[in-house]
Amino acid sequence: MAVIQINFRGKVQKVKIVCNFVRMEFSSKLLENAVYEMSQLPGIGKRTALRLVLHLLKQPEARTAQLALSLQQLRNQVNFCSSCHNISDTVICEICANPKRDTGVVCVVEDIRDVMAIENTSQFNGLYHVLGGKISPMEGIGPQDLTIHSLVEKVKQGSIRELIFAMSSTMEGDTTNFYIYKQIQHLDVNTSAIARGISVGDELEYADEVTLGRSIINRIPFENSLKAH
Ligand SMILES: [Zn+2]
Questions:
Q1: One fold for both 2-77 and 87-227?
Q2: For residues 173 and 196, what is the distance between their CA atoms, to the nearest angstrom?
Q3: pLDDT in tens, the chain (229 residues)
């Protein structure tokens, strides 16, 4: 990071320049490649990538092989539940296949992290529908990129009594909820939104279990959540 001074309309101002570009000279092409690949991960800069790669290099060879194998297997064999679209090793995931779950209540979430967070609260006994993201024009993600169509089809079948919107309360989350709501508004299904004890913009996975559990129990009709904005 560098600080430079600029003269703007007669006033001298200090401006911080954040530069993420780190120039590294590698003595090995193999090392450079590994660091490059590692630095493609979110939140991993080149310096961290180098530290991680050097750490792996110090580990027994079997550890690195195991890491590479588990990632490769995940990539090659990953399955998505044909009903809720959650990551699963079986065609129908354990939650959807559990006869004790209430199939009439479906919680709409962004991804598996939300399912895990809500499951941890032990306050929800219905099923989930995993959208696989949220509508974000900025990132070029439209409704067709998510599993919205399959959700609407499920609702049309008529066995769902209630849809609970549990997307993060960001602009993209709100847009996604509202888009789905418009698609199913005319159908015979109740819609609700989880009551938020957490501040706007907080992601579900970061909410503590008690707060999140309470917000599911105290969910409000979706129309009311719209008025709150
Ligand atoms: Zn499932």
A1: no
A2: 13
A3: 556 666 666 677 666 655 555 678 889 999 999 999 999 999 999 999 999 999 999 999 999 999 999 999 999 999 999 999 999 999 999 999 999 999 999 999 999 999 998 999 898 999 999 999 999 999 999 999 999 999 999 999 989 999 999 987 788 999 999 999 999 999 999 999 987 655 545 566 566 777 888 888 888 888 887 765 5
CA of 147 to the centre of ligand 1 (A): 13
Q: How far is the CA of 97 from the centre of ligand 1 (A)?
A: 7
Q: What's the distance, Cα to Cα, between the start and end of the chain in Å? A: 38
Query: What pTM value is reported for the model?
Result: 0.77
**b/e sequence 127-137, b meaning 16+ C-beta within 10 Å:** bbbbbbebbbe
Q: Which CATH superfamily is domain 2-77 in?
A: RecR Domain 1 (1.10.8.420)
- The CATH number of 87-227, from 3.40.50.300, 3.30.390.50, 3.40.1360.10, 3.20.20.140, is 3.40.1360.10
Q: How far is the CA of 105 from the centre of ligand 1 (A)?
A: 13
Domain boundaries, the chain: 2-77, 87-227
Give yes or no for a contact between 201 and 166, defined as CB atoms under 8 angstroms apart. Answer: no
